[in-house]
């Protein structure tokens, strides 16, 4: 139970890794992982028989079964992996790629679905082929796997390699008339060992067709070959057997025990039983090395994918954090600058301050009928300068924090004062020159005084036209004083209105601008979030796989 749970965990981890690594489904590693996972999940003991075409693989299996269950011919016929399992009667099940199942008694249907076509190609619409046979050898949860011949087409070789990973014992059939070259032997050994496949036995066929002396020489050379593959087999069990497959099949069909014995079949079957007796109890020892080998490859690929992704995520996070730190520092500086500019403008707009600075100039401009010029050239530019100082901080905040610009700081100016002078006294005194000298302090504006700001509503000042003159001699001075006061009051009213309205507008703008000045840390970009998530999944998968592999060792 514990071993099954371990197998289940490892299968889940390997399958998760396949999804995370997004390997090509046709890649060798993807197929290897899939095969190993299927192998770990299979409760039966599987014996795969493989070799080049026309080496007698199907004939050997038929001899073991004592039945012509599998099609045999002089040309490569097996065009699918045929699973031979135990059943109460000889029957065949074909599963198509579309899910349709075909069940028929006997094995005649194999000629239709499990052999190569006229171009020696496998059918691509067959998902699996199973033959059920009532043979005692299969009864104890054992299955035989007849594989297509190798060295014919690449697609067949790929299928064979995939299926070998799912076998607990591999039987390679050799042709005594055509031995493996050194290169072929090394290639096969490296491929098997790289995948943790260590349970392999060799069966040499066709030795009976050689002269006795040649048989001895060939068998001697084959023993050297087999020793280079010596691996996980029970003690005192050889990994090289001579079986003359066709004579063995004929002997079994005839019930000739002596002939079966002389063909080498009986000795080979005895070895298989001994291997089964040990390995069925130790299937974990057979399967785990393959899982370790494939798992180690997956581990390396996971590590190779994690490293650049981790660097990429770290770089992106550092860049984002640095930008946030800069923006937070900018927030403090902008807030300080904005507060300073607001305070300076507010102090400048204070009624007492603005009257102290500009009432005399405004009065003089009114007296000289130059108020528009003074307002345009001196007062408004000063207001605009304060506005610009405030707005520039808001513009910087919007640029740094990627906010939308709020409404502009709008400062209105009152309409120009309208001063209505009283009627001039009927006197010989010429009052036409009184205006320029009415307010002596207004000479500061004439000389080019401070720049001004803000305008609000207008005011008109009327004086009772019927001024009572107490004395004829004082009428001229009284008129001058009254006119001067009218100009002074008009200038004061203009500036007071401007101060009040401008301060109100400044306060409203300050409240709106507060939202722009507060930097909000932006959400993590979706791309970075996805990469973080992917990195976490890869790291978790790597940790789980590493833990499982360590528990094996």
TrEMBL record:
Residues 47-201 form the Dynamin N-terminal domain. InterPro entries: Dynamin_N, P-loop_NTPase, TRAFAC_Dynamin-like_GTPase. The chain crosses the membrane at residues 442-463. CDD domains: DLP_2. Keywords: Membrane, Transmembrane, Transmembrane helix. The keyword Disulfide bond does not apply. SUPFAM superfamilies: P-loop containing nucleoside triphosphate hydrolases (SSF52540). Pfam families: Dynamin_N (PF00350). The keyword Membrane applies. This is Dynamin family protein.
